[in-house]
Specification:
The structure is a single chain. Helix content is 34%, strand content 16%. It is built from 9 helices and 10 strands. Strands 9-8-7-6-5-4-1-10 form an 8-stranded parallel beta sheet. The protein has a two-stranded antiparallel ribbon with strand order 2-3. Helix 5 packs parallel to helix 7. The two termini are 20 Å apart.
Length: 300
């Protein structure tokens, strides 16, 4: 099984102490986000084929990566760097620090270990198309040779995304919009061409209707990449999370409403104050990432 840590929250940035403890224990208890019985997910041994980490700040987890590599466990870091204005991303690390961290990871573990995410592409008066072209080109140039893939997506405007973004737009006095498909495709295609110029493959996450020249479908949980890093094949069936998703089957050990980075467009946070409160309530020694909800068992 591939372990995802986590597309629901940034475990490397905020919950590394917990992950260290769970690796020592060899398992984590993961509540079902949609109700139902929690699951006991193994984190060590023959049941674990590899890890995929999702983060904006991998520095707190450096020793975890060393540990996995030393044990011969392959891992990939899906590293998001967008360089958007603070009105859109209130609490993310400085761009220079994130770029330095990606280059360090690539130097230590190899360029196959890191995938850069410029994700999502968000249309606003602060980030119009020309901003993205210039900003993306600068970031791609800085990461030339450190990564071989950049994953893109057009922002998906869920109801909670719209609510959070509207509130932020009112406070920070910006406008935003969800453009038509042809406008999205035009910009994504331009970014794909810029990526190719920097020696990277541009992939698009779960949006087959927006695929255009210079873009390939993304496999964010990429069994082939993990097998390449491990130096040996392993079997993993495709099991996407939504239509158009080409990810291999995995188990995610994170929790929603727990990432305090403060990105207005985030699909995993419905309430930013709730996410901050979740981090305060978090117990690094607990079996679960977050305390159990009332009426829900904390463990199995």
């Amino acid at each position: 099984m591939i372990i995802s840590a986590s597309y629901r929250t940034d475990i490397p940035a905020f919950y590394s102490d917990w992950l260290r403890a769970r690796l020592d224990a060899g398992y984590a208890i993961v509540p079902n986000p949609y109700g139902g019985k929690p699951s006991r997910v193994p984190l060590a041994g023959q049941n674990v084929d590899g890890f995929v980490f999702w983060t904006r700040n991998a520095r707190p987890a450096r020793d975890i990566f060393d540990r996995l590599a030393g044990n011969g466990v392959p891992f990939v870091v899906q590293y998001t760097v967008t360089g958007y204005p603070t009105a859109l991303e209130t609490s993310v690390p400085p761009v220079t620090a994130a770029l330095d961290d990606i280059r360090m990871l690539a130097e230590r573990f190899g360029p196959r270990c890191v995938v850069w995410r410029y994700d999502p592409v968000f249309w606003s008066s602060l980030t119009p198309p020309d901003f993205h072209r210039e900003n993306f080109a600068t970031l791609a140039a800085a990461l030339r040779g450190a990564v071989d893939e950049v994953t893109l997506s057009a922002a998906h405007i869920y109801r909670k995304t719209r609510r959070n973004t509207d509130e932020s737009a009112g406070r920070a006095d910006f406008t935003w919009w969800d453009p038509a498909e042809d406008e999205k495709t035009a910009l994504l295609s331009d970014l794909g061409a810029l990526a190719a110029g920097a020696g990277m493959t541009a992939t698009l996450c779960s949006q087959p209707n927006l695929l255009a020249n210079g873009l390939e479908p993304a496999k964010c949980i990429d069994a082939e990449r993990l097998a390449d890093i491990a130096g040996q094949p392993f079997k993993a069936r495709r099991k996407g999370n939504r239509p158009g998703c080409l990810c291999a089957e995995s188990r995610d050990i994170g929790g929603y409403d727990s990432c305090p980075h403060g990105c207005v467009y985030c699909y995993a946070v419905g309430n930013r104050q709730r996410a901050k409160d979740a981090l305060k309530r978090h117990d690094p020694a607990g079996e679960t990432l977050l305390p159990a909800k009332s009426g829900q068992p904390a463990n199995l």
